[in-house]
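Reopening: structure tokens for the beta-D-glucopyranose complex, inputs below.
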Amino acid sequence: MKIFGLDIGGSGIKGAPVDLDMGDLAAERHRVLTPQPATPDGVADGVRQVVEHFGWTGPVGLTFPGVVTGGSTIRTAANVDKSWIDTDAGTLFSDRLGGLPVTVVNDADAAGVAEMHFGAGRDRKGTVVLLTFGTGIGSAVFVDGVLVPNTELGHLELNGHDAETRASSKAKEDGDLTWEHWARRVQRYLAHVEMLFSPELFVIGGGVSRKSEKFLPYVKGIRAEIVPAQLLNNAGIVGAAMYAAEQHG
Ligand code: BGC
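Re-run output (same inputs, fresh job):
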């Protein structure tokens, strides 16, 4: 079965039809720039462009970088325009897409669902925590493969700061930190999450998952196994489509 998956990020809106049997994109993905400021109206236009590029007319799953309840309503907007808060994004996108059935899900939850099914968390039991390091830090917590949605562990307090402002990859870039310096912050952060959840496995996602050999060797003293995500840039798109398939498939 094929469903359209779409990932709304701080810099790009990207999507493609997804082959749900393979857990992979069924066509090369199309990307447009996220409008700045990333308001609901501007983002909805970008979403329409990506979907129209493929002439898609079936169900669409979308990720959003904030808390999403009921597959539709946005509750937080840490790194996008605050006017998203309390927006019924499902209705907004569906209207802009000529009434196509739409499901919206938190970006890290979508990536986590895809990694648990097709990637680094496949067949893993017990507690698994996926963390995405990007503009912010996203989290997805699984117990025996079942997701606890909207965990928002990126906003745990770390040394008196919102953790994502210290340990995201944006924090690395903004502070011009070496891999080793940044890895020490990631280590402190993982130790804190481990203290709270005692997971068997951490899956490290986001753009840095491609460069794990540069920083994971510096992350020491964590009891849980730590592995990079496997679906790289496509985890959000695949996970969004999986969500939509559950609702509308
Ligand atoms: C948001 C999360 C999101 C993460 C990654 C955080 O700032 O609060 O909802 O999953 O960034 O985009």
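The domain at 120-229 is CATH 3.30.420.40 (Nucleotidyltransferase; domain 5). The helical segments are 40-53, 89-96, 107-118, 164-167, 169-174, 179-197, 212-215, 235-248. Marking as resolved unless the reporter disagrees.
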